Amino acid sequence: MKHSKQIIAGIIAVLVVAISVSAISAAPSASAQEVTPFPSREKVISVTGTATSSVAPDLANISFGVETQEKTAKDALASNSELMNTVIDAIKKVGITDSEISTSQFSIYPVYNYYQEKDTGKNIQELIGYKVSNIINVKTEKLDSVASIIDGAVGAGVNRVDSVFFSLSPEVASKLKDDLLAQAVLNAKSKAEIALTPLNYKVIGVKEISLSEFSIPYPRPMSDMAYGAMEKSSAPTPIFTSDQDISTSANVVFLIGSN
Predict the structure, then answer these.
(1) Do 184 and 50 meet the contact criterion of CB atoms below 8 Å apart?
(2) DSSP string, 154-193
(3) pLDDT grade, residue 132 (50/70/90)?
């Protein structure tokens, strides 16, 4: 009887081992599943669309100012302030308001004379005065008044005209950007449809859109004007505007399918 129990126990142990080995063999490998993902069946085409528009600027930007030099900082500041107030009054007479005027740069700094002593050869730095520079910027939509603004300012004492350039106001730029982006996307779709036609495919959806930055040409300011040259001229200053080419682009990834 004891012998029979030992035989039965041995058979049960063998069966347990066999079942365990079978279970391990049947289990799927996790690592095998990770390295063989289910392949995507999406068919796509990537196209970049562009849009360009030529636009007349609606904003004038004029930067000019007054530089004065005196023996003391106080005198230089007083002289500069008096001259600048005269300039402001002059440009207001041609229709410029306070809201169109802003200060872009103001500085007071010492002026030195450098020389070398003949006897000792020592380099000498001598304070000879102070210079005050006050530069203002006029931003206006009165494009026809630009020449009058410059002439009036120079006549009132301006001895620096740093730049004159034309640009788009934020309102016009924003509307133009929206219009061009829509045109760029439609241009991308048109290109995709033309490319797919001979392949017997068609656009069935959109997977991704990437928009580029709005491209506005960098303003080209006039060269700095020399005070002496302006002072001698009695003819009106000729100023001309020109259209600006504005562009943008959009990259669109289209989902495609057969016809």
Answers:
(1) yes
(2) HHHT--EEEEEEEE--HHHHHHHHHHHHHHHHHHHHHHHH
(3) very high
Residue matched to tokens 């929206």: 178
Q: Locate 28 and state its tokens.
A: 């799927």
Q: Half-sphere exposure (CA, 13 Å, Cβ side) for 199?
A: 13
- Alpha carbons 207 and 185: distance in angstroms, whole number: 13
If DSSP codes are grouped into helix, strand and coil, which group holds residue 11? helix
- The letter for the amino acid at 9 is A
Question: Two tokens at 86?
Answer: 């005269």
* Nearest-angstrom CA–CA distance, 142 and 70: 36
Q: What is the mean pLDDT of residues 170-194?
A: 91
pTM above 0.90, yes or no: no
Q: Which helix (H) or strand (E) holds 233?
A: none
The whole-angstrom distance between residue 253's C-alpha and the CA centroid of its chain comes to 25
- Looking at the predicted structure, is the pLDDT value of residue 15 above 80? no
Give percent above pLDDT 70 in the chain: 73
Question: Rounded CA gap, 135 and 66, in Å?
Answer: 7
Indicate the Cα dihedral angle 192, 55, 137, 237, nearest 10°. Answer: 140
Q: How far is CA 79 from CA 13, 23, 93, 214, in A?
A: 111, 99, 22, 45
Q: Which of 48, 45, 49 has the alpha carbon at shortest distance from 201?
A: 45
Domains and CATH numbers, the chain: 36-58+168-224+238-259 (3.30.110.170), 59-166 (3.30.70.2970)
CA distances from 133 to 35, 104, 229 (A): 70, 11, 20
Decide the pairing of beta strands 101-116 and 123-140.
antiparallel
Q: Which helix (H) or strand (E) holds 222?
A: none
Q: Cα separation of 56 and 58, whole Å? A: 7
Residue 82, CA distances (Å) to 86, 126, 134 in order:
7, 28, 12
